[in-house]
Amino acid sequence: MMALLETRDLRKSFGNNHVCRGIDLEVEAGQMVCLIGASGSGKSTLLKCLNLLEPIDDGVILLDGQDISIPGLDPQPVRQRIGMVFQSFNLFPHMTARENVLLAPRRVFGKSRAELGPSVDALFERFGLADRMAHYPDQLSGGQQQRVAIIRALAMDPEIMLFDEITSALDPELVGEVLDVLRQLRETGMTMILATHEMGFARELADKVCFLDAGVIHEEGAPEELLTHPQKDRTRAFLSRIL
Amino acid sequence: MITRRQAYEARIRRRATLVAGGSTLAVFLAIVLLVPFAPGWPAVKKSFFNADVFAETFPGLLNAFLLDVAIFAWSAPLIFLLGLLVALARDVRAPAAYPLKLFAILYTDIFRGVPVILVIYLVGFGIPGLGLPRPWNSPYIWGTVALVLTYAAYVAEVFRTGIEGIHQSQRAAAASLGLSGADTMRFVILPQAIRKVVPANMNLFIALQKDVALLSFIGPVEIFRQAGVYKSLLANFTPYVGAALIFLAITIPATRYADYLLSKQMKART
Ligand SMILES: Nc1ncnc2c1ncn2[C@@H]1O[C@H](COP(=O)(O)OP(=O)(O)OP(=O)(O)O)[C@@H](O)[C@H]1O
Ligand SMILES: [Mg+2]
To answer: For all residues of chain A together, what is the average pLDDT?
Structure first.
């Protein structure tokens, strides 16, 4: 089976800081892949590269077999197919939750609010935020803001969703409601890549866990194997530090 | 129900108000009582604070002030627009648009670097001197253009800092949704940036309101020029005091309001 998203020898540096030194990642359709690794190991950078928010230096990124990392390629059509949710929510503060969600489909697909209304309202309904649509981001809790951010990305009907430590900025009691959204998404068969520190969650739902270290995927495998019986010393050291 | 803390704070506040009021009154009384003892006071009073002259000239001054208001009213939107366009031109990244960017940089540098009055003289006298047909030879028009050119440069800088002040994660979020650069600017960055710089722009527009008086040097009979006419006619400076009062009646509330908006923003951010 061909991977839906694949990187081959992906390299990315900021000046002399070589963050990705040849990353080979394969994500099949419907899979949920978790990226783990120490702070600064390049999880966010890798996700941004996949979304073409950061240009890569070398290697290729294949989406459905097509090279999307050709220098000079228009990134917009690719970004519609790959949604991204950030640690700090990044909602647009001057718009209501609903307007946040409507903006991109309106502008990119040229649809009207009326056309989009039913499907967008259904998304709010599905994630338990129907009564928060008219609120501004600063009137919402962190967990609610993050769920709006997820809805905003889903409204573009992406094939793949990238999540960058989306629960790290939340108070502990709000983490659950956001993870529930991911569980729901998982059931719909959405292809997802998560950078996360939630090992319990990774173990519960991931198809594959990749440990990033020194700019490469140092070790990868099914969650119960990698998280309980890591083969390599550095993986073991990392896991013993955080568990 | 008032808590002990609230009662205490209310007591402190009352005392602070009393002390502030008392000391202000004392200083004010001292000025009112002592200034008349100055040897030149009777002469100053006669030529600057003459009640008869004031009553006679004030309606005429108010009338002339309408021209200031009119000049302000049609230059302010132009300044806003031009300033915004220049700020956007400085933000463009396409190589083809580089000349535009260069022009915008030159423009802001030049017009912020020259005193307003010089621009008014050069544009207000220079361009009509080209021998344009009426009404295009009017110093009223070109003087206003000079004001617009100068103030748009300042407003452009304010907008630019506003645009740069929007956190880069907002651009990243917009880009990740597939929004184009132009849409990101129009729907995400600009609305936030414009709101953020309202107080700074208000201060510029208050300054503009005062600088309209500079046009009097090249022709239009606005309030400052009208006051000068009365001064020569009546050999008395009171009309200038009247003009100053009229300006203050506008600028003080406007300044207070800008400060209020600014402090509200500061509070919202913390
Ligand atoms: N825009 C940038 N410019 C320069 N250096 C950057 C930039 N973004 C990231 N880096 C550097 O790249 C390295 C990897 O950062 P990255 O944010 O990808 O790590 P991470 O694994 O997501 O860490 P964390 O768990 O703290 O989020 C760091 O050394 C960081 O300083
Ligand atoms: Mg990160």
So the answer is: 91
Q: C-alpha angle with apex B139: B138 to B143, nearest 5 degrees? A: 130
Q: Tens of pLDDT along A161-218?
A: 999 999 888 888 888 888 888 999 999 999 999 999 888 888 888 999 999 998 899 9
Taking only residues 117 to 176 of chain B, the set having a beta carbon closer than 8 angstroms to any beta carbon of chain A reads 169-170, 172-176
Q: Which ligand is nearest to the CA of A212?
A: 1
Q: Give the number of beta-carbon pairs within 8 Å between A and B.
A: 60
Q: State the best of B166, B168, B177 to mutate against chain A, taking most chain A CBs within 10 Å.
A: B177
State if residue A19 touches ligand 1 by the CB under 6 angstroms criterion: yes
In 3D space, the residue among B125, B212, B111, B118 whose CA is nearest the CA of residue B155 turns out to be B111
- Written in H, E and C, the secondary structure of chain A is CCCCEEEEEEEEEECCEEEEEEEEEEECCCCEEEEECCCCCCHHHHHHHHCCCCCCCEEEEEECCEECCCCCCCCHHHHHHEEEECCCCCCCCCCCHHHHHHHHHHHHHCCCHHHHHHHHHHHHHHCCCHHHCCCCHHHCCHHHHHHHHHHHHHCCCCCEEEEECCCCCCCHHHHHHHHHHHHHHHHCCCEEEEECCCHHHHHHHCCEEEEEECCEEEEEECHHHHHHCCCCHHHHHHHHHHC
Per-residue model confidence as pLDDT tens digits over B46-73: 888 888 888 888 998 888 888 888 888 8
Does B178 sit within 8 Å of A80, measured CB to CB?
yes
Distances (CA, A) of B32 to B27, B35, B41, B53, B248: 9, 6, 12, 22, 21
Ligand 1, atom 16: nearest CA belongs to which residue? A42
